[in-house]
Amino acid sequence: MSNANSLDALIQALRRLPGVGVKSASRMAFHLLQHDREGALHLSQALRQATDSVRHCALCHTFTEAEVCVTCLDPQRDAAKLCVVETPADQSAVERTAAYKGRYFVLMGKLSPLDGIGPKDIGLQKLFDRATDGVVQEVILATNFTAEGEATAHVIGEALRSRGLQVTRLARGVPVGSELEYVDLGTIAHALVDRR
Ligand SMILES: [Zn+2]
């Protein structure tokens, strides 16, 4: 029975991945063991390597293998501006616009009371310490426009305004190239309220 136990353990381990149920986990395990043992070994080595070496940047909290990430070390960046995003993917999206040259803080999550994710889980104290270091002047809240992203922005905004910082939020607007007739009402309403 020891072979079956190893298989069960692999399936249980794969089920830890988000969105993977017992069916998908079984399919992945069978595939790896039946058709791609080399890939399975490669996967296990990559997992070991990443869990050993990847950590959080001491300044912006994003993933890095060094004490401080490349973006934080870049002297060309405006240290007076701090853009708060939920994930490294969101940070990349802001970077691709080439419209922002300040620094970042990556929450690596968002407040979600229903899932038991509170201020401690997303490193808010680290953000507050960073934002009040005397160098940062403006904090730009670029969390997502979902209920959780808005709630996260609200909590951070309140806390930092009470510490005397200038806090701004990404403007919500009508997508470039879209026709009003096809834009949802909530977006049009926000665009009207945030008009400038
Ligand atoms: Zn960093």
Automatic annotation (TrEMBL):
Alphabetical keyword list: DNA damage, DNA recombination, DNA repair, Metal-binding, Zinc, Zinc-finger
Zinc finger (C4-type) stretch: 57-72
A GO molecular-function descriptor: zinc ion binding
Domain of life: Bacteria
PROSITE patterns in UniProt: TOPRIM
Residues annotated as domain Toprim: 80-175
Record InterPro entries: DNA_Rcmb_RecR, Rcmb_RecR, Rcmb_RecR_Znf, TOPRIM_dom, TOPRIM_RecR
An example Gene Ontology biological process: DNA recombination
Family membership noted in the UniProt record: Belongs to the RecR family.
Entry function: May play a role in DNA repair. It seems to be involved in an RecBC-independent recombinational process of DNA repair. It may act with RecF and RecO.
HAMAP family named in the record: RecR (MF_00017)
Name by which UniProt lists this protein: Recombination protein RecR
